[in-house]
Amino acid sequence: MGGAQGWVSCFLFLMKNKFADLLPGRVSTEPEDLVCYGFDASGLEAAPSAVAWPHSLEDVVEIMNFARSNRIPVIPRGAGTGMTGGSVPDRSSVVVSMERMNRVLGIDRDNMTVLVEPGVINGHLQRELERFRLFYPPDPASMNFCTIGGNVAENAGGPRALKYGVTRDYVLGLEAVLPDGSVIKTGVKTAKGVVGYDLTRLLTGSEGTLAVITKILLRVLPMPEEVITLMALFKDLEQSGNAVTAILAYGIIPRTLEFMDGEAVRAVENFSPVGLPTDVEAILLIELDGDPVVIRKEAERISSICSHHQGEIIMAEDEEARQKIWEARRAISPALYHLKPAKINEDIVVPRTKIPSMLKKLRELSEESGIMIVCFGHAGDGNIHVNIMADKENKPEYEKALGLVKEVFRMTLDLGGTISGEHGVGLTKKDYIGMEISPVEMDLMKKIKNVFDPLNILNPGKIFP
Q1: Domain that includes residue 243, residue range
Q2: Smallest Cα–Cα separation from 181: which of 54, 26, 15, 68?
């Protein structure tokens, strides 16, 4: 016991003195800072030994060199909005918060690219690009808080992923620091490039386990001419799923095709009322963008399809009405915490045509277990956020709810889906990764991790069980 206590004392001395001296004014071991940087949106928490706020590439190199020399785990962090514990530290680690590296370094309107530091807030970048009539499609629900660096680390998606794709489809190149302190630059500035392995795509979605990203070159698009927003109301849950399949089968690709079940609608109206009808079993939020003539015709066709599936269509009359609808969509997650403060949130994906089957299975699972399951998400690409509502204080209920997670994943995989669409694996899903990834594939992934990080100091304990 004395040996362990001695090691802890030595380690804390190292943090408070040697590491703090490394970046004066940019490192803290104060308890209030450690608490603030010890959790993310997963609900998991564990205070680190220190927090560092680098301002530059050189700062990150210094941190990684110190960490490697002293074998100290480093946890890269964006804004802490992740849902799977990807940035949750442990006591022996240093959190490296990238929030002060938050500059938009350059917008190239002619080549339609933007160079940013990882701490840039997604929503801030969106607004900055609008001044140049440019458009960055990835739009997570947390876009007004989450960082681009965190989006890249998790390969974040969002409602517009149906038409425009996810973060990896816009990352052209990266500057990053490896665990040994060396700097790499990946990718190209051009539309095409196939020289060597695609390290940019490897780092995108690697959850901070391979390198610390310090610069990001993104592809952007011209801003769409016009946007039309529709809301379709359904009294029957399965019919809403059938309508999704029918819209896409017709060849219409909306920029968003979002889904809220009746429980989600009622939770939002109780939490932050925006005037949604509470007597429905599902709502589809549909947006079209592009040429005004074309999207008006598509809106008419979508209205007809929804009507055929017993849906009632409402069109947002102006920008204020449109923003109200999106306010409701983005309020779902916080609203659900008012129902049960310890909800279990999983983001499974099934093939689009399997959405009605999956929704039916989830409802049956809820009825059989007696535990409320609330669903919402990106119906257009099959990404359903499954919220198993349970109270941690009620231990039997919470244990039962945890047992449902594996069943949800099993049903998802049986339908040809995946257990994580945009939240990553982190800590909360690592025990289930073997349900989807074979031992051969897992071994290969671990070998890649070992090549980048042989000392296992960069975000250790994440992804792999």
Answers
A1: 224-331
A2: 68
210 and 110: one domain?
yes
What count of other Cβ atoms lies within 10 Å of the Cβ of residue 272? 14
Q: Is the pTM of this model over 0.70?
A: yes
- CA–CA gap between residue 94 and residue 100 (Å, rounded): 16
For 254, other C-beta atoms within 10 Å of its C-beta total 27
Distance between CA atoms of residues 141 and 22, nearest Å: 37
pLDDT tens digit sequence for 166-222: 999 999 999 999 999 999 999 999 989 999 999 999 999 999 999 999 999 999 999
3-state secondary structure at position 27: strand
Q: Under 8 Å CB-to-CB from 280, ≥6 apart: which residues?
A: 233, 234, 235, 262, 265
Look at the block and give the residue holding tokens 């490897």. 202
Of 82, 97, 112, the position where a domain reaches its end is 97
Strand partners of residue 62: none
- For the chain, how many structural domains are there in total? 3
Alpha-carbon distance values, 119 to 154, 215, 288, 456 (Å): 14, 9, 30, 24
**CA-to-CA distance for 99 and 289, rounded, in angstroms?**
33
Instruction: Tell whether 429 is covered by a domain.
Output: no
Q: In the 3-class helix/strand/coil scheme, how is 369-428 assigned residue by residue?
A: HCCCEEEEEEHHHCEEEEEECCCCCCHHHHHHHHHHHHHHHHHHHHCCCECCCCCCCCCC
My answer on whether 35 and 143 are in the same domain is no
Q: Phi/psi of residue 379, each to 5°?
A: -60, -30
Strands 50-52 and 74-77: unpaired
